[in-house]
Amino acid sequence: MIAFEGVSVEFGGARVLHGIDLRVRAGALCALVGPSGSGKSTLLRLVNRLVEPSAGAVRVRGEDVAALEPTRLRRSIGYAIQSVGLFPHRTVAQNIGTVPRLLGWERARIAARVEELLALVRLDAGLAGRFPAELSGGQAQRVGLARALAADPDILLMDEPFGAVDPIARRGLRAELRRIHAGTGKTVLLVTHDPGEALELATDLAVLRGGRLVASGTALELTAAPVDGFVRELMGGGD
Ligand code: ADP
Ligand code: MG
């Protein structure tokens, strides 16, 4: 579903990703783990062309993203980030309906979809008319998740989506993500610096260190022998 083929990225001459080869199969929930600055966000942002490779290719659904129109590509991929980035002057319903509106859906269809998504992320329907400033951090993250899912993308990119919320809200959000992933078969690429989160949620793991992919495989493969090396790598990778 997503393939990185010998991908390197440079920023102003400094190489931050070195020849990454990684395939994410359809339906996987792949956790990208590694220390701060190891290149996790950069790797994720290659998928929706917020970052361009200096070498190699990124394929999405078999197509080289370099040949795809960026706006169209982005509307086909859900993207949720730590800072959420809700539009402050738009209501919860308007925020969730952003991509469907851009795609030209009819008003009634958007309204029905918003209602469905609020239920999916377990938010009270009464929140639809609120503004982002009137939400708790956990509620805002749920709205961000609903917005990312709005047009039912088959790929979901999540960059430390629960990093800014309290532990109880985070536990709830993880549960929603696990349920949504299990129920829809979406391909999810999740950046996290929390090994517990990775081990709890991921079907597949990719470990980055210093811009290099140092381990990848299914969670089962990587947590089976040689357990110690991998788990040490993972646990040592927190920041
Ligand atoms: P992570 O998400 O693992 O913390 P990032 O992918 O954000 O790591 O960053 C990897 C490296 O690339 C870091 O050294 C960071 O400073 C650098 N970097 C990231 N984005 C940019 C950018 N837009 N311009 C210059 N350097 C960047
Ligand atoms: Mg990051």
From TrEMBL:
It comes from the Bacteria. GO terms for molecular function: ATP binding. Residues 2-235 form the ABC transporter domain. The keyword Metal-binding does not apply. Keywords: ATP-binding, Nucleotide-binding, Transport. The keyword Nucleotide-binding applies. Belongs to the ABC transporter superfamily. This is ABC transporter ATP-binding protein. It comes from Craurococcus roseus. The lineage of its organism: Bacteria, Pseudomonadati, Pseudomonadota, Alphaproteobacteria, Acetobacterales. The chain holds residues 1 to 239 of 309 of the full protein.
